[in-house]
Amino acid sequence: MRYFGKTPRTLLAGLILLAAICVSLSDARQAFAAAQLSTFIQKVQPGELFEGADRFGELTGEPPVAPVYRGKDLAGYAYLNSDFTTSIGYSGKPIHIAVGIDASGVIHGFKLLEHHEPIVLIGIPQAKVVAVLNSLIGKDLARVAAGEERPPQVDIVSGATVTVLVMSDSVVRSAVTLIRSGRFGKSDALAAEAVPEIRKLDLSKDKASDWQTLLGDGSIRSLRLTVGEVSKAFADAKHQDGVARPETDNPGDRFIDLFVAPVSVPTIGKTLLGEAAYQRLVAALKPGQSAILIGGDGAYSFKGSAYVRGGIFDRIELLQNEQGVRFRDRNHTRIAAFAPSDAPHLKDIGLFVVPADFMFDVTAPWEIQLLVQRTLGAREKAVIPFNLGYALPSAYYTTTKAVVVEPPTEKPSAAELVADEQPLWVRIWNMDRVTIGITIAALLVLTGIFFFQDWLVKRPRLFAWVRNGYLLFTLVWLGWYAGAQLSVVNVLTFTSALVTNFSWEFFLAAPLIFILWAAVAAGLLFWGRGPFCGWLCPFGALQELLSAVAKRLKVPQVRLPWGLHERLWPIKYIIFLGLFGMSFYSMSYAEMLSEVEPFKTVIILKFVRDWPFVIFAVALLVAGLFIERFYCRYLCPLGAALAIPGRIRMFEWLKRYPDCGSPCQRCSKECPVQAIHPEGQINVNECIYCMHCQELYHDDHRCPHMIQKRLKREKFMALSTPESRGEQPPKPPRTVVTHNGQPITPS
Q1: Radius of gyration of the chain (CA)
Q2: Rounded Cα distance, 628 and 543, in Å
Q3: Which backbone phi and psi does 127 adopt, to 5 degrees?
Q4: What is the model's pTM?
Q5: 666-677 burial, b if ≥16 CB within 10 A, otherwise e?
Q6: What span, in angstroms and rounded, lies between the C-alpha atoms of 125 and 307?
Q7: Which of 289, 410, 637, 664 is most buried (most C-beta within 10 Å)?
Q8: 220-233, pLDDT tens digit by residue?
Q9: pLDDT, tens digit (0-9, with 9 covering 90-100), for 358-409
Q10: 316-320 and 291-297 beta bridge pairing
C-alpha cells in the first residue's frame, strides 16, 4: 500500500464529505420539533386567514392552536396542518399550511408556508396550486366530521396531482381531527370517547376458506359503480365537463368492481393467495406490518399509470384515523389471479404492503379511497372520491378493555419515552435490527477482504470462491431480499435536499440505504468507486455472475477496440449530468428519466413490471453476456456520479510493476472491464476493484515479470546443485540380493 499526497484543497473536500456524513443525528429531532405553529406563526398575518383580523392570541393546547381576534372579538383559530395529520408530499417531506377555521368548523383561509415539492418549486407556478385550494374556503367541515357529508375535493393541476391531493387532504383531515377533539370549547358527541378496547389479531384462526364465504361474512368488501353513478357524482359536484366525458356511452356499463381484503390476516391470506404465496408474504413482512389485496375490473383501473412514470399510485389511498398513505411501486406486487376456484377473474389485482412508518391497525376500521379522475380540458382534471370502508370481522381478533391511566403530572423525560413516542426513524431502525446487523457484518467482511487482499489473491481458488460468494450474497440478499439497491435518484434527492431544507430524518427512514451510502462515502476515500460498483451493487453482481455463466457456456466474448472503448466511456457522464441538471428543473421529471437505470425493474420489482421496462432491462443483461458489464462500462449514471468524488481517494492499493504496459500488456488485455490503459496505468474512474490484475501480479506462471523472477530463481537453484559444479554425486551403497542366504548373480 502506498500513500499518495494530495493538495490541501483535496484533503479539505474529503474532510467536508466525512463531516456531512457524521453530523449529529440528534439535530434531526430538533428540526422536526421546530416544525410547529410557534415557528410558522411569524410568517402569517391574521388578515390572511380571517378577513379583518388584526392579532393572534397566546398559543394553547397540544398540538397548539392560536386564537385569532378581530378587535376584541374572537374570529376563529389558526393551526398548522402538519401538527394534526400527515402531510408528506411527493418530495418525501411535509407540506406546512397554516389554516384558519372558526368555532363552527368553517374554513376561512389558509397560507402555504413551506414545502419541498420539486414540481412546484420549479415548473408549475405556486400561485396556480394555491388557487386550486381556494375552493376549500367556506366549506363547513363540521358536517364532514359528523359523517353527514363527503369530504370536499379540489380540481387537479396536471403535473402536480400528488402535491395538490396531499395539500387538500391534509387541510381537510386536520380540520376534521381538530373539530372532533372538542378543542373549540364544545363537549358534544364528536369529542366523546368510550373506554378504549385493545384488539389483537387472532393468529390461531388460519384455516383457508373460499371466495363466497369470505364475501358473505365481510372478510372481502366490494364497491360496485356504474358509469351513470359516477357521472351523477360529478354532476352533484358541479363538474359538468366531467359529466360530459364518461368512460363509455352507456350509463349502465360497469365503471368498476373494486374488491378489498387484508391478506396479512391468516384465513383471508391463505384463501386468496394460497398457502405457499401466503407464507412468502408473511416471511417478507416486518413485525406488525400488514398487507392488503385490491382487485378491480371494469372501464376504470384503480392502478392508473402514474406509478409507472413516478412510482406512486395516485388513484387509491389507504385511510385510517384521519391519516392517509399512498402506495408506491416498491410496496406493490402484481397478482395474476386469486387462488380460490370460485373467485372472479379480474383485470387488475395488486398486493400492497402497508409502509412500516404508517401506524396501521388492521383490526380497526379503515378505508380505501378510490379517486376517480376525468379530464376537464387539455391540462385540467376533476377528481371525485369514493370510499370503500372496511371493518375486520370480529371472528379474526380478540378484544380486551384497556386500563385507563391518569396522565402524569410531570412531563416524562426523553429516556422514559415509549417506543411509539420515539422519532419515526428510530422505530424503523429498531424494527430492522436483524437486517441492519447482517448488512454491517457484510461490510466488515468486505473491509477485511480489501485489507488482506494480498494474502487472498495469492490463493486464486480461495479468492474465486470468496468473490463469487460475495457477489451472490449481494444479489440475492442485499438486492432481491432487502431491496438495498442504491440509485442515482438517491444522489439527486440528496443534492435537492441540500439546496432546500435538509433533514437527516428523511434519509434515516431507510436504514440499509443510509448504511450503504455511509460505507460508500468512506470507501471513496480509500478505494474510489470500486467497492460499490464491483462488490455492493446487486445489478452489477448479476451482470458479472451471468457473464461467468456465459463464458462457461462458450458464449463468444466481444472485446471492443481501445479507441472505441475509450470514446464510449463519457456516455455515462453525459447521462448523469443530464439527470443532475434536470433535477434542478423538476425532480419528478428527473426521476422518470432515471429509468435509464434498470435497477428498479430487475432488483426492486424483480421483473414484475410493464413490458417496455422489462425488455429494456433484459436487453442490457443480454448485451452483458457478450461484453462483460456492458451497462456499468458505458451507461450507468450512478457509476459516473461516484467516479467524480472518487478522485479524492487517499491511497493506492493496486500494485504495478515498472514494466506494466511497456512492454507487458497482460493485465490490460485481461481486465474484465478494460479499465487498464495500454500504457499500463489503471483508470480508477472505471476500475471495479475485481482484483484480477492483482492475481496476475503475484502469479509466477502468467505474469511475465513474475515468470522471469521464477526462472531466475530456478536457475539459481539449479546452479547450487553438485552436478552444476562438475562433481560426481556419491554412489549409492550396493545392495546384495540373496535367496535363501545365497547371493544372486544378475544375468
Answers
A1: 33
A2: 7
A3: -60, -35
A4: 0.50
A5: bbbeebbbbbbe
A6: 24
A7: 637
A8: 998 888 888 888 88
A9: 888 898 889 999 988 876 655 567 788 888 888 888 888 888 765 544 444 4
A10: unpaired
- Please write the tens of the pLDDT for every residue from 615-652: 999 999 999 999 999 999 999 999 999 988 877 777 77
CB 39 within 8 A of CB 13: no
Q: How far apart are CA 420 and CA 411, in angstroms?
A: 16
Cβ pair 214, 261 in contact under 8 A: yes
> How far, in Å, CA of 404 to CA of 490, rounded?
45
CB 689 within 8 A of CB 527: yes
Of 639, 654, 629, nearest to 526 by C-alpha is 654
Question: What pLDDT is attached to residue 260?
Answer: 94
CA distance 437 to 460: 30
Nearest-angstrom CA–CA distance, 289 and 201: 12
Q: Which of 622, 628, 474 is nearest to 551 (CA)?
A: 628
Peptide bond between residue 556 and the one before it cis (omega within 30 degrees of 0): no
Cell of 488: 442515482
pLDDT of residue 93: 64
Instruction: State how far the Cα of 234 lies from the Cα of 425, in Å rounded to an integer.
Output: 41
DSSP string, 658-714: TTBTTTB-HHHHH-TT--B-TTS-B-TTT-----HHHHHHH-TTT-HHHHHHHHHHH
Cα–Cα dist 154/238, whole Å: 12
